[in-house]
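Example record for the data management plan.
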Amino acid sequence: MVIFDRGYFSDAMFRYFSDRGYLCVMRIRDSFKIAKQCTGDCILTLPGNKKKGTEDIDIRVIKIPLDGGVTEYLATNYL
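Corresponding structural encoding:
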């Protein structure tokens, strides 16, 4: 499993690893659209883009409340 830190989430990079069968996990900012849709441990759809030739793919988003009121979000292709 490849682990990325905050600020490294990229739709293209996530798709690259998923398409090649590599597991990955990336921290994502709470302002990211997919994070806002998650209420706990969710399987969501990362929408494709016809112009870029990409398709919808499933993505697992996990919301993790930390001490002090901070919330972290993880995105992974480990479903």
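Summary line stored alongside the record: The helical segments are 11-19, 33-37.
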